[in-house]
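Would you mind giving me a polypeptide sequence along with per-residue structure tokens?
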Amino acid sequence: MKKELLLIVFISFVFNLSAQSVDPLITKDAEAQNIWVDSIVKNMTLDEKIGQLFMIQAYSNKDKKHEDYITSMITKYHVGNLIFMQGTPEKQARLTNKYQDSAKVPLLIGFDGEWGLDMRLKDTYRFPWNMTLGAIRNDSLIKEFGEHLGKHCKRLGININFAPVVDINTNPDNPIIGNRSFGENKENVTQKAIAFTQGMQSKGVLANAKHFPGHGDTATDSHQTLPVLNFDMARLDSIELYPYKKVFDAGITSVMTAHLSIPSLESDSRLPTSLSKNVVTNLLQQKLGFLGLVITDGLNMKGAANYATSAEINLAAIQAGNDLLLIPQEIPATINLIKKAVELKTLTEERIDVSVCKILKAKYWAGLNKYKPISLKNLHEDLNSIQDELLHRELVKSSLTVVKDVGENIPVRNLEKKKIAYVKLGDDSGYDFVNMLKNYGKVDMISDNNLDGLIKKLKPYNLVVVGFHKSNTNPWKSYKFTNKELVWLQEIARDNTVILDVFASPYSLLQVKTFTNIESVIVSYQNSKLSQQLSAQLIFGAFGAKGKLPVSIRGEFFEGRGFLTSNLNRFEYTIPEAANLSSIKLKKIDSLASIILKKKMAPGFQVLVARNGKIVLEKSYGHHTDDKSEKVKNSDVYDLASLTKILASLPLIMKAEEEHKITLNEKLQDLLPSFKGSNKAAVSVREILSHYGRLKAWIPFYVATQDSVTHKNLPSFYSSKKSAKFAIKVAKNLYINKSYKDSIYKYIRDADQREKAGYKYSDLGYYLFKEALEKTYDKPLNKLVDEDFYQSLGANRTSYLPLQKFAKNEIIPTEKDNYYRNQLIQGYVHDQGAAMLGGVGGHAGLFANANDVAKIMQMYLQKGYYGGKRYLKMETVNKFNHRYFSGKNVRRGLGFDKPQLNPRVKATCGCVSDESFGHSGFTGTYTWADPQSGIVYVFLSNRVYPTAANRSLVNSNMRTEIQQIIQDAIID
């Protein structure tokens, strides 16, 4: 024992003398480590020692014959290390346990997972490629990435991951490195490699710097041939070797030697650097002082395999100074050849002992001295966690790079002035990109088989977003534009303001001859779903750009270039945990949704949850009607009923109040002189908005237009055809006498007031606000609110008179009306009074989807600010979100509903703050916002289908039950 222990100490001493480096494989308990290594080495035969030098390929997607082969290699030839290739994590875990059980010495399990286990295994997590990560300014995120990958490896029993790639990609035509490199800047590459290494090794997984001495400036692939680097030592030392020296100092535990021909390092042009003693021993271990594990690149690669027979290559690799042979071929022949070399003294057993001791030290470092079988319980969940998704999102967000932005088109502002088109280039999908763009406003997909036709179609637009989408399958896929696409891009840019968004390698930009007419350029690096979604959000200012270009594009865009753009406080679309909400708890909404559908409380509905400006759940359930022919989509619009009050009338009233055109103390007789002398003359705007004006709840105006016996609509009031007399459309084939509008206001004027003062919810005041607003601004209410709010908010799925804007199948039906309009109400307002006004009411008539409702509520939550624009003053929002008659048990603010004062009333779940506000609607709608928790909640349904008598949704309090689930999901 003493003899072997002295050998280990002597080896370390010699290397320390020559390079004055620290052995990265030594653990804190070095004495125990040495004892463990010594206890194994001293009992090994030469065959067993030679077996430790091999790391052979194992697959988890092959048959029993392959499994038996691997087992026999372990038991018969003492193979000490495996590298797992393609398969599944579950099968790999089972096989690892099986193979470890058959091994006399624990196996070092290797893996090639540069961007995650997904590089080889199905159903595992994929993080971005290194080129994408190279664009990130914050290296702590790279360390965190290393930690996550380390956790994944450790969980699956992987002891060494062959990453990071530390090659400096100075050659854009490099066919094998490219996207696998952090870029062309040696400092950037180095710092990211160190951060990644620190992260992964902190989890007990050996990192591996590759491909020594530098594969970044090659134009050929060493998998296919032997690349040549004709650089002198000064160049190699200043560029290629730079990151290796730094990562060695930072404690990386292993390095991979590449199959290259570098005449300045090895005069034999046929001899790969991986087999060169000048490179592996003299340069790497003696001059640079690396004491960690030295591993060849795959010895099945033609860059090495073409040199000699497989056995001869394997022997040469050991003689050159490598410790571990990666994917060696001809194992039995190699064993025999190595033993013969020992006999001939061209290789000594002591030299083999050096590598065996290092391999065993690495195994101890990785914890294999206390090996435990892999547990399969929750394996899939552990390898695909919410935390991985959160990190992935942050990595992509931080990488997105704006390299040009003439005219400050990014982020897009002033949506009311924009007409936006999207044009797709490239051979991969841009579906997720354009769908996310559409969340922010109206974006039209424009295409044509002919360039002239496309240019003609683009004429009405003043902003064209061109997405260049290339395959994200792997980093070696082609990233290039076709010649046709390059011509089309320039022609599109000639007459249009263009944002070019490249979902491919930044090197694709090298093909673009001029950027003169392209105002803005974004590099999004990869065409993943997440990259597409987040890049679209960046364009609209959900967050600012932070990335920097990791490579240079001729003299046009230098490495490190990247503009920081503004955050406009528009919604971000993400996952619940990004807003400190539990996705598991929010899934309980699905259970309530099932109950709603099963008990036919509504045929379908939309639910949206946002927190702190982040939409984390937007989901549609069920169908338009009970015939289940049309599923509800997130883009479908619902009749909002009384939500109209706070989403249409109220913002206009608040604006008018700011402009001193309406005051809260103003009397109704001053607001509308026709009410002078009425019993409502002295009622104030404040009282009406607070539902404290003693107004009746509602008046069924339509009843007075029907026969009192048959209840049929009287011909003196209605016609099936439009005419000068019957000019107001109530519903399909139903027009009302235009004079009846005056009758409605007369009914309201003359209606009795409630005898007692106190709270009573009433629609009537909003009929009057509509009239006052239209007279004040000399414009119809629907146009007024659209121009002042919806257009600039990007609320393009919000509208009165929806059939004028949307296809009928995008509009959710409400009631099968058999008492007034005698038809299925679809595309027309359900509320009879609003219908008699032509579909535009101050109290009802608005249609929208949940996404747009949330935008308006978020504008309120942000105190009147959204999308880079101030709509209302902060003090105005605070003024209206206040109870003025709470002493009279009135829970309402001005227009806004607020939490119940009486616990028996279920206005909310009872779990929201007193600062919160919202409203409900007769058709089964509900929205609520809470400044304290930052939550915006939207529920839209057509619970009045098939009839308004269907009150089970209301009676069950399902809307507020869901609100309780949301509140319970808060995890901060």
Summary: Residues 2-19 form the longest helix (18 residues). The first strand starts at residue 54 and ends at 58. The chain is about 35% helix and 10% strand. Confidence is low (pLDDT under 50) at residues 1-20.
